[in-house]
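Q: Given only this backbone (367 positions), what sequence would you predict?
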């Protein structure tokens, strides 16, 4: 309870801070200027099972790439620098940029992290006593360029690069025995296709609409990767607006992996977005699915509360999963850091069906 109270104090203090930093400027680019640029800078303090306590700073910039196009979508760039009490360093940036009257969209993410964490093996029946520690330095870059076809329909291509350098493992463990793909690290380079229908009214915390996305990634030694495999993702989301700005959000997500994939690139269960209540990586296998629902409702100015329930599983065969479903439920508040968009700070606590739990504090909704 003390921890939850401290988070609310942090969020309240951010209210005054973001009001000072939520500014409009004109940023020069060459001979022109992007007008009505909004910058939001906030200190970051959060907790997850994977990181323990963490702190840092983040900046989010909203702007229109063509201010003359009044009905255009807001582009945004987001960057964070984070250090955790588990001696983890996380530096990441993300952008979503719209061009040519929103006919093209560029999604890009870059992440560098030094991340001591845990591994339990492969499969849905791994035991808690199998836990072992390892240290990994990760560099991850992905970029996708999408072309709008008819309204709300987008198609494009994606490039992905990842380098996993495993620097330390427990002596005598599974990774030390080098019996799992990726135990000695991996370098991955792949190309894929993205197709979606996106009718959401907001990318950060939608009130209505949906996202229906199919994504592929083909990674090959031909492209200088250490492994060759293919992955497919289906992400289906629906947002139902209820009276008084209440929202029922639904998601079905599945990831299918075929080939010689390292454990870092297989289907990973858990974490702050996909399966709250489970340590990210507690269960890893070739295939995964998650079905989750979340009810969101306002409780005060700039504040919302959410309650969620989910179930899912991992497995190595498409014709069935040989372990019990992995379910969880939870709740938590949201604080919107700007009056003009629905970018939010989020706190969730999740309880899983194995008796464990997790606390998550981050930016924007899980889905």
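A: Predicted residues:
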């Amino acid at each position: 309870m003390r921890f939850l109270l401290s988070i609310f104090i942090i969020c309240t203090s951010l209210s005054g801070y973001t009001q000072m930093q939520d500014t409009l400027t004109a940023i020069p680019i060459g001979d022109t200027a992007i007008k009505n640029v909004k910058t939001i800078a906030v200190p970051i303090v959060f907790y997850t099972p994977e990181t323990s306590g963490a702190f840092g700073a983040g900046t989010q910039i909203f702007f229109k790439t063509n201010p003359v196009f009044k009905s255009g979508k807001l582009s945004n760039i987001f960057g964070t620098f984070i250090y955790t009490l588990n001696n983890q360093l996380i530096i990441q940036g993300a952008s979503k940029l719209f061009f040519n009257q929103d006919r093209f969209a560029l999604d890009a993410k870059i992440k560098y992290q030094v991340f001591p964490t845990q591994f339990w093996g492969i499969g849905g029946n791994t035991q808690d006593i199998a836990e072992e520690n390892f240290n990994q330095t990760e560099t991850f870059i992905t970029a996708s360029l999408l072309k709008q076809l008819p309204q709300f329909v987008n198609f494009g291509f994606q490039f992905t690069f990842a380098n996993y350098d495993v620097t330390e493992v427990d002596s005598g463990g599974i990774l030390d025995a080098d019996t799992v793909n990726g135990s000695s690290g991996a370098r991955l380079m792949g190309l894929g296709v993205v197709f979606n229908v996106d009718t959401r009214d907001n990318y950060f915390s939608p009130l209505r609409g949906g996202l229906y996305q199919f994504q592929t990634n083909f990674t090959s030694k031909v492209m200088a990767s250490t492994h060759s495999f293919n992955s497919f993702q289906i992400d289906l989301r629906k947002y139902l607006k209820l009276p008084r700005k209440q929202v029922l959000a639904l998601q079905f997500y599945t990831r299918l992996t075929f080939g010689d994939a390292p454990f870092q690139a297989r289907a990973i269960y858990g974490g702050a977005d996909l399966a709250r209540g489970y340590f990210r990586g507690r269960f890893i296998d070739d295939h995964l699915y998650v079905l989750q629902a979340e009810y969101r409702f306002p409780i005060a100015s700039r504040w919302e509360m959410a309650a969620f329930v989910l179930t899912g599983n991992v497995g190595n065969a498409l014709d069935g999963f040989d372990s019990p479903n992995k379910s969880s439920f939870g709740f938590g508040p949201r604080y919107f850091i700007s009056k003009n968009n629905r970018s939010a700070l989020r706190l969730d606590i999740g309880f899983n069906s194995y008796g464990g739990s997790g606390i998550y504090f981050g930016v924007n909704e899980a889905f």
